[in-house]
Amino acid sequence: MNPEARRRLKQHFPGLKAAASFQQTSDCTLQYNCIAWAAGDDTQWWWPLDGKYWPTGVPRELTMDSFERAFQSLGYERCDGAKQEKDFEKVVIYASKSNEPTHASRQLADGKWTSKIGSLWDIWHAIPANLNNDVYGEPKLYMKRPLKKAPKQ
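The structure assignment produced for this chain is given below.
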C-alpha cells in the first residue's frame, strides 16, 4: 500500500491511526466484497440487493436479521463478543446508526481480524472497533462456528 493510500485509509478509519493497527494483505479487487470475505468466499460479491449473490432461502433484505440468517446458513450462531475462543472462528457484522448492515469482518487464527475494504484491499486489523466510522457504523452482531477439524490420517 502506498503511503498516500495508507494515509487516506487512516483518515476514513480513525481507529487505524496507530502504525501497527493494520496491514494490507491483498491487492485491490472488485471480485468480492467484505461480506463474501467474512464468509470465506473470494469468488463473488455478496449482497442481498442488486442481483448479487445471496444464500438461497435467505431474505434479500438489507436488515440485520437477513445478514444474521446468511451467516447462520454457513453454520454461525450468535455469540457474546470479539474475544477469541478456542476451536471457534468468529465474524462480526457492522451496522449504521439506523441499524442497517454495512460491513463484516472475520477473526483470524491469531486473534486479529480481517476485512475487505469496499473494492479496495483486504487488511488485518487488531480489533473490530478499528473500523468504526460514520459509514461502517460499529460492530453490532458477533457470530461464531466451530473450526473445521482436519480429517485424521
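Interim note for the steering committee: The mean pLDDT is 93. The first strand starts at residue 22 and ends at 24.
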